[in-house]
Amino acid sequence: MKKKDNKDLLREVFHAFKNNLQIICSILYLQTSDVKSTETVEVLKITESRVKTIALAYDKLYASGNYDIINFGEYARDLSESVFFLYPDVSQKIVLDVDIDDTIEFDIKTAIPCGLIIAEVITNSLRHAFKNASSGNIFIRCAVKNKKYVLEAGNDGIDFPEKINMKKPETLGLQLISSLVSQLGGNVSMKRTGGTEYTIKF
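Predicted structure:
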C-alpha cells in the first residue's frame, strides 16, 4: 500500500472538514422550515451565514491546492453573494460593491476573521439599514495603506444609533466584530452618518 505524503493527508483533512461544515449548513437551512417563530428563523439564518463563511474559506483552500493562502478578493465576493442569497426580499433592491485588490492574499487565520466581519456587516445592513427603502448600497473595500491592511465595510442606509457604544457592544453581532478585530490584532472605527461604515486597520 502506497504511503500518503503530507499533502495528500492535508487534502483529505480539508475535504472532510469542508464537507462537514456544508452538512451543518444544510441542517440549519432545513431546520428553518420546521420552525414558526420569525425570531428563531432569523437566528438560524445568521448562524448558517457564519458557518458558510468558514466553509467557503476551506473550500477556496481545497480548490487551490495551496492549503495556505486565499485570494481574498475572490473569497470576499463569493461570501458576500452567499449572504445576499439568504435575504432575497431585501437584497434584490440593494447594490453590492466589493472592491478588493486581487493581489491581496491572506492565510486561513486572517481570511476567516475578515470574512466573518464582512458577513456580519452585510447581514446587519440587510436586516436593519434599509427598512422601507426602495434602494441602497452595501460596500466592501480592502487595500494596503501605509503598510497596513485597511478593511472598510458599510452601507448608505439608516444611520447607526448613537446610543450604541462600539467600545462596549451589547449585541452579539457587534461583540463578534469587536472580538474578530482583536483576533486580527487591529482596531476599528465607525462612521454613523450617511449610513454606517466600519474601518478596520490591522
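Summary: Residues 12 and 129 are 42 Å apart (CA to CA).
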